[in-house]
């Protein structure tokens, strides 16, 4: 039995896209930022060019669990960062979650990174929303 | 044997090349930052003592395997040795340590509990910590290697991140189970800061964002037989780390001895390589699903 290269490519692509990501991710109700943290504005909000550095940091520190595209990995129970339920959270909440981690569920704290680098990560995570909305299922 | 080597090579080769290797530059002081869960860090370091009159020149290399058991629990195994100029090179023993961070969230001060078992002999000179009166820097390896020490060491690690500065303090309590030396005490504290706060977009290696610099101070505080900082070794040491690649880093420190029991200069050098997702890769190798 022979498989065409196109079919093999499709199957490989579908495996990577469909089975690796974590579209069924639900927010952990126990992992909530305090009210004061959720309203913190991103000091780099007016510097969108800093998101490029955030991408570099994301690939170094986050991609192992969240995937290069931020789609999350089912086996790691990590968030698909492109999902609306994730992106609806405030910048301050993202910053708090990156800083503290959710150590009981395997997400480490990244407080070792300088504060501005953590805000750069938040900037980059926001860009995943746009990338995700172009390719993701609109019903999600 | 060939199979084992092949498997190990496979594990190393299949390790994810992208992971964080930005190491704290401290050699002695511990911070509250733990190894990421499932990651294995392999580190080789050397402590070199420049002697003063009556002391001997030595190099004490050691291998460190650090594994993130969970996000709050890190284990480490050390294998250490010592080479003394004009004397000999000896294996000085092993240590197994565990660090546990009881609080799940970041606070203004973050405690970490540390417990270590040491099976070393008195020729040990790596000086990962100094307690009691410090190591014997005048006797030969031949005299010292016969004296074994089974020690239990505990530390209270307190660490804070404040505006990109890390400030850490360690309080050390050691009990030698082999001899009646009382309970020995030591300390270490330090402060570090990254040289740049923002990450650049380019993949530069020598830019400031890849460097962390600081200073640490450590020494012995005597024992229950005589609690005093006098008569022990004390050092103050500027430290720097450089993230050479995404998964390897170099650390360097020049310690200056502050007492007659110290070496005038203590040079430390370390290279570490981090294997991300080590646990899941080993598990998969043996048919696991993790």
What does this structure look like?
The complex is a heterodimer of chains A (140) and B (290). With 140 residues, chain A is mainly alpha-helical. In chain A, helix 3 (51-61) packs across helix 7 and helix 6 crosses helix 7. Chain A contains seven helices and no strands. Chain A is 50% helix and 0% strand. The longest helix of chain A is centred in the last third of the chain and has 21 residues, at 115-135. Chain A is globular. Chain B has 290 residues and is mainly β. Chain B has one domain: monomeric porin ompg (Porin), CATH 2.40.160. In chain B, a hairpin with a 4-residue loop joins strand 11 and strand 12. Chain B is globular and about 55 Å long. Classes of the chains: A mainly alpha (140), B mainly beta (290). The A-B interface holds A 49-50, 52-57, 59-61, 63-64, 75, 99-104, 106-109, 111-117, 120 and B 16, 18-20, 22, 24, 31, 33-34, 36-37, 68, 70-72, 101, 104-106, 161, 163-164, 166, 194, 196-201, 203, 209, 246, 276-277, 280, 289-290.
Q: What's the short story on this structure?
A:
Chain A contains seven helices and no strands. Chain A is an all-alpha fold and 140 residues long. In chain B, strand 3 (73-84) and strand 4 form a beta hairpin.
First and last CA, distance of chain B = 26 Å
Strand runs of chain A, count: 0
Number of separate domains of chain B: 1
Question: Low-confidence parts of chain B lasting 5 or more residues at pLDDT below 50?
Answer: 8-19
* CATH homology group of the domain at 48-135 in chain A: Cytochrome c-like domain
Multimeric state: heterodimer
